[in-house]
Amino acid sequence: MKRVVVIGGDAAGMSAAAQASRGVEPVELVVFEKGDYTSYAACGLPYVVGGEVPDADRLVARSPEQHRANGIDVHTAHEVTAIDLDGCTVTVRSLVDGTTLRQPFDDLVIATGASPIRPPFANIDAGGIADLHAIPDALAIDAAIRDRSPRRAVVVGGGYIGLEMVEALLRRGIAVTLVEKLAQPMATLDADMGARVADGLVRLGVELRLGVGVEGFVPGADGWVQAVATDGGEVPADLVILGLGVRPNIRLAAEAGIAIGPSGAIATDARMETSVPGIWAAGDCAESLHRVSGRPAWVALGTHANKQGRVVGLNVSGTDARFPGVIGTAVTKVADIEIGRTGLSEREAAASDLDAVAEVIEGTSRAHYYPGGSPMAVKVVAERGSGRMLGAQIVGGAESAKRIDALAVAVWNEMTVDEFSQLDLGYAPPFSPVWDTPLIAARRAGERAAR
Ligand code: FAD
Description:
Elements: E1 2-7, H1 11-20, E2 27-32, H2 45-50, H3 64-69, E3 73-75, E4 78-84, E5 89-94, E6 100-104, E7 107-110, E8 114-116, E9 129-131, H4 135-148, E10 152-156, H5 160-171, E11 175-180, H6 191-203, E12 207-210, E13 214-219, E14 225-230, E15 233-236, E16 239-242, E17 246-248, H7 251-256, E18 279-281, E19 288-289, E20 296-297, H8 302-315, E21 330-334, E22 337-343, H9 346-351, E23 356-364, E24 375-383, E25 389-396, H10 404-412, H11 417-421, H12 437-450
Parallel strand pairs: 1-2, 1-7, 2-3, 7-18, 9-16, 10-11, 10-16, 11-12
Antiparallel strand pairs: 4-5, 5-6, 8-17, 13-14, 14-15, 19-20, 21-22, 22-25, 23-24, 24-25
Helix pairs in contact: 1-8
The protein binds flavin-adenine dinucleotide.
């Protein structure tokens, strides 16, 4: 029987293993995971810190024992330290007793994920400075809040993890300052939409330090952080959360001579096979195709990790499967501010040499006369001339962000904005105005694209 070895036991790796265990060709499956958990939803971590999810164990979809019961030979606390392509083996170190072993493979799945970026800031290892990437991080932040009752926290980085942690800390009664080097939070949005997020954060009582770069941290005599040193002065802090983005874990692949793509992640084809036959990559460590720009892209999201892992699992077990690519759809929220985006922003369209027009329309989530609606702004980006929908962004209140899904379907299928504005979408006053805001934004973008 073919032996498939998987490196990494979370979304991508265990999706691949679980799918392969049900494949048309029987395969032997061996998984190495350096942590203690398998198949956990990192996406839920901010809600463990915020308290909506009372217990981190609820994030675990399937434990190592459950996987083993399904015939997958899972080894937690085992780190793969090298890949030998000539010998078709991986070197594995036990993090329990330090012993090493060599594991032969026929096929190898690299699903090593990504790691948080930790710049060499002064005193970054002081107490009270945390990333949020895996379950132990959420437990450590929760313990720090319980033990030290911080009054002031600084979140460094205004991406989606930073914003979700702003909400979590506010829910824990902690005053929050957001320090962001760029002039806007949510750099995946255009500046005009990012400014709406900034306004919402100020409304929530968050102190915003935009355009401010962190230089280091100032610990107290007990080694615990007291302040964040920035190029705009010191910001007092009893707790610091770093949300500076992630980098793909490519070291093992690169050292083995597996090609790294232009995005910096492991290059793959549509079957998620790397430059070396029989070596596959999926999830946050892997590159995929951006369907709108037509260029290789690295979009580190759980939604892709699960789908790519499934594709790999099918391919290693006798079925020919393809991953069709990404369009950069994402949603998040911070308290009552919802954010959605798909496709290319105006800035990304320009970087992809596309001639784009855009329209921003403000509206409400329900008919104006129906109680309980909330405001939203929708931006639609279209290609000048053809009117092809290139992307869309939403910033608004409750019920707004998931409207991005309809826009994403249009972007995915290369619909024009005019076609989208004519779509037969559901309407009733509790759900939307009769002309829902995305439809109006698309129609206006179409008029602009035709000029
Ligand atoms: P990972 O989940 O990082 O798993 C990789 C695994 O490989 C890890 O368990 C690691 O320990 C193991 N590993 C690495 N190297 C080795 C080695 N050498 N040997 C053995 N094991 C190794 N995505 C969304 O789509 N929506 C969201 O709302 C969302 N929210 C998020 C919130 C937070 C706080 C975080 C951190 C992430 C969020 N994501 C979200 C992203 C999503 O969690 C990731 O895209 C997804 O977990 C990637 O899965 P993966 O299997 O590729 O990598």
